[in-house]
Amino acid sequence: MPARPCPGPTRRDVLRFGSVAVAGSALAPATALAAGEPDRTTNDPAVIFVWLPGGPPHQDTFDLKPDAPAEYRGAFRPTDTTVPGVRVCEHLPKLAGLADKFSLIRSVAHHFADHGGGHKRFLTGRDPKQPTGFVNDTPMVGSMAAEVWKGRRAAVPNYVSVVDGGRQGIDVFSFGSAYLGPRSHPYTVAGDPADAKFEVRGLSPVAGAGEKLADRVALLGGLDKPLAGPDLSGTASGIDALRGRALDLVGGDAARRAFDLSREPTRLRDRYGMHRYGQRALLARRLVEHGASWVTVVMENATPPGEALKKSHSYNWDSHAVNCHIFEDTEYKLGFLDQAVSALIEDLYARGLDRRVLVVVTGEFGRTPKVEYSVGTQTKVTQPGRDHWPQAQSVLVSGACKTGVVVGSTTARAEVPKDRPLTPNDLWATVFRHLDIDFDGTSFPDGTGRPMPLLPYGEVIRELV
What we know:
α9 crosses α10 (276-289) and α10 (276-289) runs parallel beside α11 (326-350). By secondary structure, the chain is of the alpha/beta class. A hairpin with a 5-residue loop joins β17 (443-445) and β18 (451-453). Helices cover 31% and strands 15% of the residues.
């Protein structure tokens, strides 16, 4: 079919299929995939997934090698934590004081060094067909969980992602749901929650549109009945439920309250940090508290509202020497990450949410063991950096798992796992176990009708359960 300048449905499409087909794709992400089943409770397990795209340097954050040669160990030094023998970067002092409330996995590895391939490999649990590009062949793990929960209801969408403005495309981070379809996409919140002008779009009707909305809903119902015919497949009734859920979100107050950060005490907002990292973490806590099952928090640019990105810094965690001065950039980002994640962990424990909420903090891979030097594209001076390195990376987990534990280790220069080698699949097997999802026995039909399991392989990380 030739491409159309406007990708939306034509008038002929509407007349041919009624509102059933149109609403099916348009409403599904916003309705939390919730229709007709018992409501979720605030006792259900949940995940807050903190995604650090670009690949944070493991040897400059959670797996420092102070005895390695200078060209490997970098500029940072380790600091002791509250767990004897466990040390992290000196620029993570708040997390160092909470080490008994999180665990570190230091031996995760895979084989895809491109950002696109790395995102797809890490986030889907499968080797992608193409080693580059961000369009998924198979669903992202969050979409798999959302599909399992498609019959659950909550005051807020079950599956949410919070990202920078302009970064909300489903393929920006390989968050696509592939053959599961758009109904398994996250409800995406774009923008900086620390900005005074921040608002969550789509949860409130346009001013003065109340009567029009009612009229249009009645019109849609009228279109469905004569044109859809007998609902032999149940599609129409499913869309009715989805539409009703969407109207509940827009017309009710529960979702707006959950997304309203102004309801939090100023002191707590300051503890998280009045920047995009901190306020996104706080929003994630509010959402799981109100019944969300999976919240993905993307932490890229750490620059506070009103400030410009520094020339020696990178937008995300992609710390090549041509992109940034890795030690200046990483130290800057770690200040925001340390504040936001430590506040999130403290807050979850203070509210008793640690018993049901699992926090996962990671990127798609680590960085090269040896520091390289190049002229920065922006600074025009020679500066240090590290390249992509999927052969080793570190993951932080907190909340509903065993804490104060270090799983695995890497060699003396942080090159490859030394013991307890793990893959992203082992991490996701552990996450699915926490969510009470049978990752071995659950499958979905792909585009050919062939059943595809949630994970092709993977074992629960026993040290964390």
